[in-house]
Structure formats: C-alpha cells, structure tokens
C-alpha cells in the first residue's frame, strides 16, 4: 500500500492529546483524529474533542469501545468506585484501566490502515506521575513491533510527550502557538470541568502543578 505523509492522532480532548494534535499538524500533511469512548465519566469529553478537531480543520472519528468498561472494574468507568487521589505505594491508582492503551493502539492501527495512514500519534508519557505501565516507552516500542507483525505493515507510533514533564508539555503547546487554546478549551478534569477544571482531582492537580511550574520558569 502506498502511504502519503499523514497521521492519525489518538485524541481525547485533554491537554496532552490536544498538544499532540497540534504537534502532528506541524509535522504531517494530513491529520485525522480518533476519539475512543470506553464508558468513562463524561460525555462532554467527546464534545470537547470534536470541537477542537473541527476548529483545527481535521477529520474527527468517534469509536465506541464501551466493552472496555465491562472487562474489569476501575474508577474511571465504574462510577460507584471512589477515585484514588494519590498513587498507592504498592500498586496503580484505581484510575488505571488495564489494557487500555494496547486496545487503543490496536483500534488506531486498524483504522489508520484503512485510511492508508502509517503514522500514529499518542500522548502517553513515561514522566506521568501515575507510572501506568502502558504509558512507558518500552511498551510503546513493543506494541509498535506487534502491530507491524500483526498486519504486515510499517506503522510508526509517535509519542512526542514521552519524556516530557507536565511543565514541558505546556512549553510545547506554547512553542506550537496553542498555549491559550490548550489552556482554555481542553478537558483534563476527572470531574468534567473544561479549562482549569475543578482544581482538586488528581488530573487537575497534575495539570496545575505543571502549569504553575511552566509559568514560573517563563517569568524568569
Ligand atoms: Zn478536576
């Protein structure tokens, strides 16, 4: 199959994946987004992702993967479980959705292939405080190899945020000229509040700490 230089971005409407969307727009001629729902708390996330994609002039595709919420309990999809606000010493926080990124990348690769796209962009970061195993570079390399073998293709999974802290990710958004857009239009908050969010959930704390750090370093 002949590929053009196009990319598929896994996009949730959050800070990280939105920064990745604009990174992709800088690096590829054609970009489309894939937004995957899996029974997480807020339908608003989809609306946010769709609006950002439409405003950026890229194709938006929604995939319902709600079956993920039926496989095992976690606090993102089971609303009766209180969300861990901190990482337990000996395990992952209950916001961890086992297998999520492997499934997401598989869905993304199948869809990318159907569009003749070989570049897949995802906003995972090894520097992410939760330390989810499927956000690590080793896992991404392994998944990339597996997907290529599974489909006899030459996908390239791009992870522009892999080694960036949250402050670095704000810096990247600024470099890409979308600092205000990312700050004001994205939804990271687990309580479904756009922009600066509720201020007290784990995602808001992480986002705010990174933002404050970036703004302090910029002011120097
Ligand atoms: Zn929040």
């Amino acid at each position: 199959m002949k590929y053009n230089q196009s990319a598929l971005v896994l996009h949730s409407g959050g800070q990280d994946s939105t920064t990745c969307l604009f990174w992709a727009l800088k690096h590829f001629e054609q970009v489309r987004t894939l937004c995957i729902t899996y029974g997480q708390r807020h339908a608003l996330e989809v609306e946010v992702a769709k609006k950002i994609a439409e405003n950026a002039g890229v194709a938006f595709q929604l995939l319902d993967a709600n079956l993920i919420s039926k496989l095992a309990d976690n606090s993102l999809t089971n609303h009766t479980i209180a969300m861990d606000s901190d990482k337990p010493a000996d395990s992952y926080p209950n916001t961890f959705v086992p297998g999520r990124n492997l499934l997401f990348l598989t869905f993304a690769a199948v869809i990318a292939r159907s569009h003749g796209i070989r570049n897949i962009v995802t906003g995972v970061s090894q520097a992410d405080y939760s330390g989810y195993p499927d956000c690590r570079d080793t896992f991404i390399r392994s998944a990339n190899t597996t997907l290529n073998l599974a489909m006899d293709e030459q996908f390239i999974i791009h992870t522009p945020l892999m080694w960036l802290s949250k402050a670095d990710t704000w810096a990247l958004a600024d470099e890409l000229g979308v600092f205000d857009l990312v700050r004001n239009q994205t939804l990271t908050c687990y309580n479904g509040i756009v922009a600066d969010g509720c201020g007290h959930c784990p995602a808001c704390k992480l986002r705010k700490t990174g933002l404050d750090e970036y703004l302090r370093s910029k002011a120097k």
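Residues 3-219 form a domain with the Rossmann fold fold (CATH 3.40.50.620). The beta strands are 6-10, 30-37, 59-64, 119-121, 156-158.
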